[in-house]
Known about the structure:
Elements: H1 5-16, H2 29-41, E1 42-44, E2 50-56, H3 60-69, E3 75-81, E4 84-94, H4 96-104, H5 127-138, E5 140-146, E6 149-158, H6 160-173, E7 180-184, E8 187-192, H7 195-206, H8 214-228, H9 240-246, E9 248-249
Antiparallel strand pairs: 1-2, 2-4, 3-4, 5-6, 5-9, 6-8, 7-8
Helix pairs in contact: 2-5, 7-8
Amino acid sequence: MIMKKWDTDLEQSKARQINSDFFDKIDAEGKAYWLGFIFADGSVRKSYDVFTVKLQIRDKGHLKKLALIFDKPLKIEQSRCKGKMFSQTVLRVFSKYLCHSLADKGIVPLKTFVDSDVFCHIPKHLIRHFIRGNMDGDGCICRFMNCGKVRYHVDFLGRVKFINELRSIFEKQFLGKQFYAVPYQSICRMTVSFAPTIECLLTWLYSDATVYLERKHNSYLKFKREMDAGILKTSDRRNIKKAWRTRKAA
């Protein structure tokens, strides 16, 4: 059988990059987690030859864990946002094979504007690791004060289709629990605001986990301490929008 030039190019690309087949099969915690993280914070160039992840400087140590998988160095670059310059830590991996492997899982160029069927590529027993990775990239564990009381809520951000699928997963996992999703500018945000539900959700996400963003894991531990101490006041749907304006996000 004669191999097509495009297939040959991909095979050569696979051979040049260490672990370029890392996401070919999602069969381990780390693969599911990083796929979720990249689904949130990563991008693939239109030419399908470079995938990039950019994070704020304080998360450099976390991004280094991903960089080590592909034996790539991190760079510090300057970016502009609303007229202000700020530094970012950047990982770039030049690999057509890896980019096409990610695209097969729904991480395509301009994915912000594309509905992807990413969940169908992840085994059920690894779904929570994917969700934890996605939360570390696009979500938050929010602690804020309201009327002198400590409150928490956990947010997940994404396109409407993705959030609806995520809500369906949660409702099946946590029978009887309610999860609300509301529009937020051009995307959709799902907020979990009832403290006992937050406890169930975060315990499920972090139980026996070996890879996570340290500062969000610390927020979970702080929530658990305050929950155990009985000092939390639960929030409801009416307070969600107010919480977005006043939250201290982790």
